[in-house]
């Protein structure tokens, strides 16, 4: 039987998870070719922070090294010159920057996302960067060896991880965040206050409720930044960690239906029946994605369809945020603010650095935050997902998982 040709554009976690799943389901169905814009195998982006502060090496964070591709008879084209710049849908052919081309029967686009680089005057100055790949990390490590002051724009997870890594490299770090508290999508003000104090104790400084209005160069390299309150901060590095945006340029150039992301249906199929898309570049039922769990679920469903199993359908499910920020455990799910019809249970232990908040609506948990101690989070998440009536355990609910059989 002649194998069909499958091309995957994007050698990251979403595309290669799809290939992994496909090899389990139908190992002999396709002749697989992968194009990636980075000069590496597939690596774990979540591990970029330990790579930054020296706890991991590049080899440590590889999911699929070059030997894996050879063992699985997968053709890998990787590096800047191998980035795909055009797809001829009529003739089912992809073309890379250096002219390398290949034909496909089925195509998977997994181009991921790009760091959101804000349009601030002076943005093109040397020393201004994102925090998205191994090359960014290597640049930060290089700079930290000769520079002193780092400014991180963005108080989300990525910004805090960059700040922690640069601080551990010996730099003086200030985090600038437009919102009034850190991790404002995952934490309320009180939990964020706990986090800020612990990070300040480690040596990170914060400027909240302001943003950067200007990047000032010194000898063609960043030297300082002006904040929106007109104050100046010394800056030898500026890391923009203000979010991501789906990388849809190739999808648009190919004429695929795109809005914020490349539009896909419940089978992860695009507007072209021979082309699928997974990961941070897609938009499904109005949603775009930035967490690993939904991306891996997409990969699983996509692989099932590529393997000829037509029953699988992707559904966006309620997902909790489980984070470890510089060694501090956090968990949040659902609506953790609530409205006037909600009741709140709050537990605070300053000595242990523990904060827990449950928002109840009609005796069902609408949302929850756990800070410092996330034991039992899976049990609580189950209650949220199943919309369990907790009236019988309300008096004990905030403390620990309750034995429902007791």
Describe this structure in words.
- The protein is α/β, with parallel strands linked by helices and 406 residues long.
- The chain folds into three domains: 4-114 and 244-306, 3-Layer(bba) Sandwich (FAD/NAD(P)-binding domain); 128-240, FAD/NAD(P)-binding domain, CATH 3.50.50; 321-393, FAD/NAD-linked reductase, C-terminal dimerisation domain (Enolase-like, domain 1).
- The protein contains nine helices and 27 strands.
- Strands 5-2-1-9-21 form a five-stranded parallel beta sheet. Strands 11-18-12-13-14 form a five-stranded parallel beta sheet, with helices on one face.
- Helix 1 crosses helix 8 (292-306).
Assembly status: single chain
When the domains are counted, the total is 3
Strand order of the largest sheet: 5-2-1-9-21
Evaluate the radius of gyration: 23 Å
Brief summary of the model shown:
With 406 residues, the chain is an alpha/beta fold. It is 23% helix and 31% strand. The chain folds into 3 domains: 4-114 and 244-306, FAD/NAD(P)-binding domain (3-Layer(bba) Sandwich); 128-240, FAD/NAD(P)-binding domain, CATH 3.50.50.60; 321-393, FAD/NAD-linked reductase, C-terminal dimerisation domain (Enolase-like, domain 1, 2-Layer Sandwich), CATH 3.30.390.30.
Q: What are the salient characteristics of this protein?
A:
single chain; 406 residues; alpha/beta; FAD/NAD(P)-binding domain; Enolase-like, domain 1; five-stranded parallel beta sheet; 23% helix; 31% strand; globular
């Amino acid at each position: 039987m002649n194998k069909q040709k499958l091309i995957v554009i994007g050698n990251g976690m979403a595309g290669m998870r799809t290939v992994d799943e496909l090899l389990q389901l139908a190992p002999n169905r396709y002749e697989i070719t992968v194009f990636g814009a980075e000069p590496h195998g597939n690596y774990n982006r979540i591990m970029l922070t330990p790579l930054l502060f020296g706890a991991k090496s590049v080899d440590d964070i590889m999911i699929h090294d070059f030997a894996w591709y050879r063992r699985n008879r997968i053709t890998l084209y990787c590096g800047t010159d191998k980035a795909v710049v055009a797809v001829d849908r009529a003739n089912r052919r992809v073309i890379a920057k250096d002219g390398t081309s290949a034909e496909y029967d089925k195509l998977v686009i997994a181009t991921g996302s790009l760091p959101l680089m804000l349009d601030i005057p002076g943005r093109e100055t040397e020393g201004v960067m994102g925090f998205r790949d191994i090359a960014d990390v290597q640049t930060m490590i290089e700079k930290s060896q000769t520079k002193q002051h780092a400014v991180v724009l963005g108080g989300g997870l990525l910004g805090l991880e960059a700040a922690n890594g640069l601080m551990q490299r010996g730099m003086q770090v200030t985090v600038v965040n437009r919102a009034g508290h850190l991790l404002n999508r995952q934490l309320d003000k009180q939990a964020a206050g706990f986090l800020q104090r612990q990070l300040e104790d480690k040596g990170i400084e914060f400027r909240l409720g302001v943003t950067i209005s200007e990047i000032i160069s010194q000898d063609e390299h960043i030297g300082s930044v002006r904040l929106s309150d007109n104050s100046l901060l010394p800056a030898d590095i500026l890391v923009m960690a203000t979010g991501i945006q789906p990388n849809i340029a190739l999808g648009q150039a190919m004429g695929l239906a795109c809005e914020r992301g490349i539009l896909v249906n419940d089978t992860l199929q695009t507007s072209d029946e021979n082309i699928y898309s997974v990961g941070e570049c897609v938009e499904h039922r109005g949603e775009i994605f930035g967490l690993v769990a939904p991306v891996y679920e997409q990969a699983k469903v996509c692989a099932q369809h590529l393997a000829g199993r037509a029953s699988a359908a992707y559904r966006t499910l309620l997902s909790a945020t489980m984070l470890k920020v510089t060694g501090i455990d956090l968990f949040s799910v659902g609506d953790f603010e609530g409205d006037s019809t909600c009741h709140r249970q709050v537990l605070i232990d300053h000595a242990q650095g523990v904060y827990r908040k449950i928002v109840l609506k009609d005796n069902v948990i609408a949302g929850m935050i756990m800070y410092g101690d996330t034991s039992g989070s899976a049990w609580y998440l189950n209650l949220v997902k199943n919309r369990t009536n907790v009236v019988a355990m309300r008096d004990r609910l905030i403390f620990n998982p309750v034995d429902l059989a007791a």
